[in-house]
Write a structure and sequence with these properties.
Elements (H helix, E strand, L loop, with lengths): L9 H21 L10 H8 L7 H12 L6 H16 L8 E6 L9 E5 L4 E6 L27 E11 L2 E8 L14 E3 L6 H7 L13 H11 L4 E5 L3 H6 L6
Parallel strand pairs: 1-7
Antiparallel strand pairs: 1-2, 2-3, 4-5, 4-7, 5-6
C-alpha cells in the first residue's frame, strides 16, 4: 500500500468536511430506509445548527455523472463521502482520492459499480459487478461477514496490493467496517475478473453470475479497474440494510 499522507489540496479537504456537516447527516436522516434508525441527541442537535444546502462538491459530482448518462443516488454518494472522510482523517487512505461505490440495491443486470476521482469529480468506470451466490440471484438480498457464507459483505473497504492468484489478477480488500466486513481477508474476499461477471452472461442467463462473496468484474475490465483503485483507496458496498445503516461506526458516531 502506498504511504498514507494528508491531502495536498487543503480546499478539497475543507470542502469535504463541510459536506459531511451539510449533506451527509441530512441524507442519513431523510433516507427512506433510515427513517427508523436512532440518531443520537448530540447528532440531532448538530444537524439543526447547519444549513441543509447541497455542497458544490456533491453537486459537481452528480452533474458530471448525470452528463455521462449514469444514475447514482445522491443519498448513496453522500453516505460514501461520510465514510471516506472519516477514513481519510484517520490517515488510512492514499492521496489518490479514488472512491469506488457498489450499489447492491440495483439488479445485477445494471452497471452498479462506480469509480469516481474525487479530485476532478469525474466518473472513471461504471460496470456490472457480481455478488455472492447466497446473497441472491438477480437481486442482492442477504449479506454476511461469516466464513463460508458465500455472501457479499456491506460497508467500507480499503484496497490493498494486487496479486496473481487462482482467479488471475486480483485485488486484496481490507474490510474496515467492524462487525460487517472485517472478516474479508480471512474469507478471501477480493476483486477479480470472472466470465460469469460479463454482460454476455446476462444475455444468456437473464442476470449476472455469482461469486463466493467477491465483487467480481468483467474480465476485460478487471485489470483497468484494479490498477486505478489499488493501494489504499476507499470502496463502499451499499445496500439499504437498517442494521448496517444504524450500527456502522463509520456512518455513525
Amino acid at each position: 500500500m502506498r504511504e498514507s499522507k494528508p491531502y495536498p489540496m487543503k480546499t478539497f479537504v475543507a470542502g469535504l468536511i463541510l459536506l459531511i456537516c451539510t449533506v451527509g447527516i441530512y441524507s442519513f436522516k431523510e433516507h427512506p430506509e433510515y427513517k427508523s434508525a436512532s440518531i443520537s441527541s448530540n447528532t440531532a442537535s448538530k444537524t439543526e445548527d447547519f444549513s441543509f444546502a447541497i455542497h458544490p462538491l456533491l453537486v459537481s459530482i452528480q452533474e458530471k455523472i448525470g452528463k455521462a448518462g449514469v444514475n447514482l443516488s445522491e443519498d448513496i454518494l453522500s453516505l460514501a463521502l461520510v465514510g471516506f472522510s472519516k477514513l481519510n482523517a484517520q490517515e488510512r487512505l492514499s492521496k489518490d482520492s479514488i472512491l469506488t461505490i457498489i450499489d447492491y440495491s440495483k439488479s445485477s443486470k445494471e452497471k452498479r459499480l462506480f469509480v469516481i476521482d474525487l479530485k476532478t469529480q469525474n466518473l472513471l468506470f461504471n460496470s456490472v459487478v457480481a455478488h455472492g451466490r447466497n446473497t441472491g440471484e438477480e437481486f442482492a438480498k442477504q449479506f454476511s461477514n461469516q466464513m463460508n457464507s458465500h455472501k457479499s459483505s456491506l460497508g467500507f473497504f480499503v484496497t490493498q496490493t494486487p496479486y496473481h492468484g487462482s482467479n488471475g489478477y486480483s485485488l486484496a480488500l481490507e474490510g474496515v467496517d467492524n462487525g460487517f466486513n472485517d472478516m474479508a481477508k480471512k474469507r478471501a474476499i477480493v476483486m477479480h475478473g470472472a466470465p460469469y461477471a460479463s454482460e454476455d452472461m446476462i444475455k444468456t442467463k437473464g442476470y449476472l453470475g455469482r461469486s463466493f462473496g467477491c465483487p467480481s468484474l468483467p474480465p476485460q475490465l478487471n485489470k483497468q479497474v484494479i490498477e486505478t483503485i489499488k493501494g489504499g483507496n476507499c470502496l463502499f458496498a451499499y445496500y439499504p440494510d437498517k442494521k448496517y445503516l444504524n450500527e456502522s461506526k463509520l456512518l455513525n458516531g
